[in-house]
Design a protein that fits this description.
Largest sheet: 8 strands, mixed
Number of domains: 2
Strand content: 15-25%
Order of helices and strands: HEEEHEHEHEHHEHEH
Oligomer: single chain
Helix content: 25-40%
CATH class of the largest domain: Alpha Beta
Radius of gyration: 20 Å
Mean pLDDT: 94
CATH topology of the largest domain: Rossmann fold
Number of strands: 8
């Protein structure tokens, strides 16, 4: 056997081993949970209640809840956060919605924030359904909720919007699918045939009748802005897209994304969006 052939076989074997290792470790490479969670008060969210979400597969998940102000007659925002960290890292932006009178349910996923279980696509969908069931028990109908998905959470919000008739869907730094994101990052691997958790939002968004707001940064290097534009184009009317000229992936609140959400929701209430 010649040197060239032996070298080629070594390269093929190494590639096969590397591909197999990525396949086996893909969920550890995909999800980055913080395994601790402070109290809402320690996180600066005074007045929030620590509640339990009970999933269909028997998990009990900690979440934080603040009811909408009764006199405001406004929706409750069901917030699905992005990858890494936990719900405590989102409290700085939630205060704006509470000050405006909205209710907020901060959903903490399985495996995140000290919750039991391990994150998977179907598992996160179950966590979202448990959140909707909790709100129903508290007297908040699906029609009185806004599904808000940030990055990883955008796929959860899209799935739930296909199952529940909600008042609006907000997607911040969303992806068309996690397969598309992975294929762009790992172009040298057959990720489209390997991935277990696919979160195919582009294939689902046309089934959603709720008004859609898409927020994305033009300089997002984690999920390129093309994903947000494709989702917006595929969404039904009414829809609105806000693309931040200087925005990246995690800094959209610094560029006014929450103000845009509040404006969008106010326009829905006033009838400016139909």
């Amino acid at each position: 056997m010649g040197f060239g052939l032996r070298a080629a076989l070594y390269v093929i074997a190494a590639y096969a081993l590397f591909t197999a290792a990525v396949y086996l470790a893909q969920r550890r490479m995909m999800y980055f949970p913080a395994t601790y969670l402070p109290t809402p008060q320690d996180a600066g969210l005074k007045g929030a209640e620590t509640v339990t979400l009970r999933t269909a597969d028997g998990l009990q998940l900690v979440a934080w809840y603040v009811a909408a102000k009764p006199a405001a007659d406004l929706s409750t925002i069901v917030y699905f956060h992005g990858n890494a960290g936990n719900i405590a890292g989102r409290t700085f932006r939630i205060r704006q919605y509470l000050d405006a009178g909205y209710g907020v349910l901060l959903v903490e996923y399985r495996g995140y924030g000290g919750n039991p279980g391990k994150p998977t696509e179907q598992g996160l969908y179950d966590d979202g359904r448990a959140a909707m069931a909790f709100l129903e028990q508290r007297g908040v109908a699906a029609a009185d909720t806004v599904l808000f998905g940030e990055s990883l959470g955008s796929g959860v919000a899209v799935q739930l919007a296909t199952e529940y008739e909600t008042s609006a869907l907000v997607l911040e730094a969303p992806y068309t699918s996690t397969v598309d994101v992975a294929a762009e990052a790992y172009w040298f691997l057959p990720v489209r045939s390997m991935m277990k958790d696919r979160f195919d939002s582009l294939g689902k968004i046309s089934k959603i009748s709720a008004p859609v707001l898409v927020l994305h940064g033009e300089h997002d290097r984690t999920i390129p802005v093309a994903h947000g534009r494709k989702l917006l184009s595929a969404a039904n009317e009414p829809r609105r897209g806000v693309f931040f000229d200087h925005g990246g992936h995690n800094d959209l609140p610094n560029h006014g994304s929450d103000a845009q959400v509040l404006r969008f929701l106010a326009d829905l209430v006033s009838g400016k969006i139909e």
